[in-house]
Write a structure and sequence with these properties.
- This protein is an alpha+beta fold.
- Helix content is 24%, strand content 33%.
- The chain is built from 6 helices and 16 strands.
- A hairpin with a 2-residue loop joins strand 14 and strand 15.
- Helix 3 packs across helix 5.
- The longest helix is centred in the N-terminal third of the chain and has 22 residues.
- It starts with 5 loop residues before the first strand and ends with a strand.
């Protein structure tokens, strides 16, 4: 396999590696977990399986190909070349996290341990990575397009999401903001908003909708029939839902869910003095501050993800 294009393999630290980083030695990490009654052997088995998966990927890519190994913690600061081919080795979350930093580069999801991870975004085995990369370089693999969400602030900051965006407080306090969708506008107090893509509509958004329906049913405000339908991964629109909206003399709870598209973006103006935040895909470390005066325009991103199938 000879190519001038670079293959970037995104990996993650195992739980054992994270524990050793925290406690400095393997023995101290084992003592800490076993003192709490945990089975350290399970952690070691997971670690061994991931190390073996990394080895299999490395062997399958060995040859006349440039390979860059990249820890997921460095994604935010890594500059991908336009013609890079990216391999994600890890859980679905690693693939989703990597995808939002790409701008058209194809991404191959590799499942390090199929008996442990369902791998909705991980259709390939480690030993097959080299063959899949060859197919991608030759243009022989189908590509699945994934719509991403985008939150843009007036100061030019932009945050992308593959699954969902959260807008709200860092803590368990209430979020105060003004929400606007088209001609509808209202002041709200809630525990935050969820904005979901098609890919994310099987996750957090589904749980929000399911819980809201169950509560409404118990209070007699909804029928027991519930037919939640996730959106296609390439749907050109997003869905939003407000979590636990609180109606009062100053706040309302009528604009609590809806559809967002390019012609009808969602606008949120923060009224939070501190601790306001927008984060994506469950990564609170990957966030924008969203405090009083900040205005976020939220809609489908122009860039889309390219997942190899």
């Amino acid at each position: 396999m000879e190519t001038s294009r670079k293959i970037v393999v995104v990996t993650r630290r195992t739980r054992v590696e994270e524990l050793v980083s925290r406690f400095h030695t393997l023995d101290q990490a084992r003592f800490y977990l076993e003192h709490l009654g945990a089975d350290f052997g399970e952690y070691q088995r997971e670690h061994a399986a991931y190390v073996e998966a990394r080895r299999a990927v490395e062997e399958s890519l060995a040859g006349r190909v440039r390979v860059q190994w990249l820890d997921r913690g460095l994604l935010a600061n890594y500059l991908f070349a336009p013609d890079d081919v990216v391999v994600g080795l890890g859980q679905d979350g690693l693939v989703a996290n990597a995808l939002k930093y790409l701008d058209g580069q194809p991404l191959i999801g590799v499942n390090p341990e199929p008996t442990r991870f369902d791998g909705v975004l991980l259709p390939f085995a480690p030993r097959d990575t080299g063959a899949i990369v060859r197919d991608v370089l030759a243009g022989r693999r189908p590509i699945k397009t994934v719509t991403m969400a985008q939150a843009s602030l007036a100061d030019g900051q932009v945050l992308y999401a593959v699954n969902d965006l959260f807008v709200g407080p860092r803590s368990h306090s209430s979020a105060r903001y003004e929400i606007r969708l088209g001609t509808r506008r209202e002041m709200q107090s809630s525990s935050g908003l969820i904005v979901s893509t098609g890919l994310g509509s099987t996750g957090w958004m589904k749980s929000v909708a399911t819980g809201a329906h169950a509560v409404a049913t118990q209070f007699g405000g909804a029928s027991r029939k519930f037919d939640y339908r996730p959106m296609p991964w390439d749907a050109p629109f997003l869905r939003f839902a407000v979590r636990e909206p609180f109606p009062s003399v100053a706040t309302h709870a009528t604009l609590v869910c809806g559809r967002i598209d390019e012609s009808l973006p969602l606008e949120v103006r923060s009224m939070m003095g501190e601790n306001g935040v927008i984060f994506s895909d469950g990564m609170e470390a990957d966030a924008l501050d969203f405090n009083a005066g900040a205005v976020a325009a939220i809609g489908p991103a122009r860039r889309v993800g390219q997942l190899i199938h």
